[in-house]
């Protein structure tokens, strides 16, 4: 039962990230936050990614890499 819930959570996160990626690229808009908040998000996700790599928490590595990529795409679209 626990594995089913974790797999469902992973699939939901993957679908949300894919949807956000295509929404960013199709609309040529990023997140609707000011640039300084996006840069803080980028730094925060990078720090969390490095921490999860050190702890070998690969599920969180995937989530933080996906979030990092989405924020980078948002920054590129905003410029």
From TrEMBL:
Keyword tags: Membrane, Transmembrane, Transmembrane helix
Q: Where are the transmembrane segments?
A: 7-25, 31-50, 57-76
Record carries keyword Transmembrane helix = yes
Name recorded for this polypeptide: DUF3953 domain-containing protein
- Record lineage: Bacteria, Bacillati, Bacillota, Bacilli, Bacillales
């Amino acid at each position: 039962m626990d594995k089913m819930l974790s797999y469902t959570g992973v699939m939901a996160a993957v679908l949300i990230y894919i949807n956000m990626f295509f929404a960013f690229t199709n609309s040529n808009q990023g997140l609707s936050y000011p640039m300084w908040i996006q840069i803080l998000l980028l730094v925060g996700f990078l720090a969390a990614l490095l921490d999860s790599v050190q702890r070998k928490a690969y599920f969180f590595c995937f989530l933080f890499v996906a979030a990092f990529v989405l924020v980078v795409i948002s920054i590129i679209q905003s410029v």
